[in-house]
Write a sequence for this structure.
């Protein structure tokens, strides 16, 4: 009987195997990497590493950050190349140079099966932001699900801020913008501020052992690619190039912890009272071998390339009502090494600032309802 | 088709030509010599629930194993003449499968309370499905030789217990459509789905079977139930194609 079962099983499997149709053509049409080819890249970029950009799946504006000294006339004959999804076709074709002196240039990538396409915009911009954060400027993301923050300098929007909102959107598709972990605070200390509140992530979040999402706001980027995997720390990368020497990290806050701290298995943690975290980090963004350095969730406070760090040591529980008073923090940067002024001027260091409503939020330990309000925060520079 | 007709003709011809034919037919008819009889059957059920044909999104079948798999039936038949009769009965069944496939751009959705995550998934999809219930067939039975009967006819099934669940991992989801955000789903944190509630209660199909009399009372049989409607109800949109139950049973029967 057993032999017969085995025979039957292999016949069935064989039958199904023979029914497998030909490999369908690819439907995806991503730009995965974008490269700029220039004769003397050092004229344009602070670091040669800046001529290559990995493009996360949710991004369709590819920004190359160039030196402020670069004039538009220098960008009239730029050669690009893309790594795209196998079989995808780029239009216009890349075997010519492009004129970026008038602004960004758009490309369309068509999938191998020709059923899908994506529009990408390539831009060359200087990156400079003032480290004086009032959090007045935020807007809804393109699909209207949640808010994103930016800094406004010289009439130019610099999208240096990121939150965990895109990750939350995956597990809570029905959530309204005000139910997200990071939302605008209408009544800040002065004008608007930011409200960071730790939320439950629903059934999907629980099933991937990420039952809470801390409210956070940080200078850096978020890529959902690894967000639900054991490498979730790689989803958040921290820092943008900065050319001034930080001295002090200051700001105003209100805080209230949530009621019950839980761990990633949704079990209450007895005796733990949730606390927020706020810190600023300056790090060398190129190592001795010339490779770009980026800080991720698992080493944002510990990477050996960190040059200076300012972290708020403790927070008062002030309450987060309108009538509760704002508390002030003023923390000097602790320098682990001397800064090289020339490297600093050439954007060889990157700065990140991080605020979160649950200090262990990255380990998915915290309390639903822990709320941190932030406004008028600065990195005071020399 | 022509080949099969020829084969059936040969079988009939050979059995009719035999001089002993009449005696053999009488000898192997029902134990009490009536035109009707009862069969109590028990058997091992094996098969699967599958789309037909396999859609191009399925790139390979990695693993398959049957789940459960037992039937207990009571059949009543009546022969009109020597060769032809009808048979009906009630079959209780428990059957299911575990299958793993590699898929590409496989449309899927995960409902989580009010929240919904959907898109196209590329990677490994493991499904477990199990059904138990009653089938009532209405078969024409053809006595092709003294000891062989072939049965063909439609059936209706009513499911008592329905289970269809699975998980996807070792791959990634493109949220919404192939140009959407790419989210990796790892083996450590698979995304799971459960479509029990979207399964039908009533299924129908065509049954093909063969009975062979070993002794006067004992028969060996094999039958195949070919499902004609999808296990999922019409409103279910998450899986793009119908999934048909295809299960075979092999066992023994006692003839009264």
């Amino acid at each position: 009987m057993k032999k017969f079962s085995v025979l039957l099983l292999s016949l069935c499997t064989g039958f199904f195997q023979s029914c497998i149709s030909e490999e369908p053509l690819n439907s995806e049409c991503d730009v995965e990497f974008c490269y700029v080819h220039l004769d003397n890249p050092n004229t344009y970029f602070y670091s040669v590493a800046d001529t290559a950009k990995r493009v996360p799946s949710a991004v369709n504006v590819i920004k190359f950050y160039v030196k402020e000294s670069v004039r538009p006339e220098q960008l009239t004959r730029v050669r690009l190349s893309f790594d795209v999804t196998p079989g995808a076709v780029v239009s216009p074709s890349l075997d010519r140079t492009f004129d970026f002196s008038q602004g960004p240039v758009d490309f369309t990538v068509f999938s191998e099966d020709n059923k899908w396409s994506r529009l990408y915009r390539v831009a060359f911009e200087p990156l400079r932001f003032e480290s004086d954060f009032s959090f007045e400027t935020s807007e809804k993301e393109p699909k209207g699900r949640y808010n994103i923050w930016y800094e406004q300098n010289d009439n130019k929007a610099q999208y240096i801020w990121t939150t965990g909102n895109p990750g939350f959107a995956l597990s809570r598709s029905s959530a309204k913008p005000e139910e997200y972990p990071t939302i605008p605070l209408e009544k800040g200390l002065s004008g608007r501020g930011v409200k960071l509140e730790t939320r439950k992530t629903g059934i999907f979040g629980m099933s991937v052992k990420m039952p809470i999402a801390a409210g956070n706001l940080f200078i850096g980027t978020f890529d959902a690619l690894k967000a639900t995997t054991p490498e979730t720390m790689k989803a958040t990368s921290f820092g943008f190039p900065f050319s001034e020497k930080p001295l002090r990290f200051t700001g105003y806050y209100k805080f209230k912890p949530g009621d019950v701290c839980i761990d990633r298995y949704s079990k209450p943690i007895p005796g733990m009272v949730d606390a927020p975290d706020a810190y600023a980090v300056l790090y060398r963004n190129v190592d001795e071998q010339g490779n770009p350095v980026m800080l991720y969730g698992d080493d944002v406070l510990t990477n050996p390339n960190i040059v200076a760090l300012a972290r708020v040591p403790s927070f008062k529980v002030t309450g987060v009502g309108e009538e509760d008073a704002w508390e002030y923090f003023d923390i000097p940067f602790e320098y682990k090494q001397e800064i090289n002024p020339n490297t600093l001027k050439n954007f060889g260091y990157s700065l990140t600032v991080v605020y979160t409503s649950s200090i262990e939020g990255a380990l998915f330990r915290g309390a639903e309802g822990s709320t941190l309000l932030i406004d008028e925060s600065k990195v005071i520079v020399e | 088709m022509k080949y099969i007709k020829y084969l059936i003709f040969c079988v009939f011809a050979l059995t009719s030509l035999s001089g002993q034919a009449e005696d053999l037919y009488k000898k192997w008819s029902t134990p009490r010599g009536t035109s009707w009889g009862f069969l109590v059957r028990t058997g091992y059920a094996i098969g699967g629930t599958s789309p037909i044909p396999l859609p191009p999104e399925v790139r390979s079948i990695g693993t398959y194993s049957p789940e459960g798999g037992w039937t207990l039936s009571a059949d009543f038949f009546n022969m009109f003449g020597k060769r032809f009769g009808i048979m009906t009965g009630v079959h209780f069944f428990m059957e299911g499968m575990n299958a793993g496939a590699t898929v590409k751009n496989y449309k899927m959705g995960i409902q989580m309370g009010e929240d919904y995550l959907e898109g196209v998934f590329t990677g490994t999809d493991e499904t477990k499905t199990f059904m138990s219930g009653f089938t009532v067939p209405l078969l024409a039975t053809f006595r092709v030789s003294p000891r062989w009967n072939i049965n063909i006819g439609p059936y209706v099934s009513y499911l008592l217990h329905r289970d269809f669940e699975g998980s996807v991992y070792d791959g990634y989801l493109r949220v919404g459509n192939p140009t959407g955000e790419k989210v990796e789903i790892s083996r450590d944190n698979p995304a799971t789905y459960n479509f029990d509630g979207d399964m039908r209660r009533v299924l129908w199909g065509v049954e093909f079977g063969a009975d062979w009399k070993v002794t006067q009372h004992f028969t060996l049989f094999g039958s195949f139930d070919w499902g004609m409607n999808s296990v999922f109800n019409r409103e279910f949109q998450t899986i793009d194609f119908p999934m048909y139950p295809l299960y075979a049973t092999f066992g023994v029967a006692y003839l009264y």
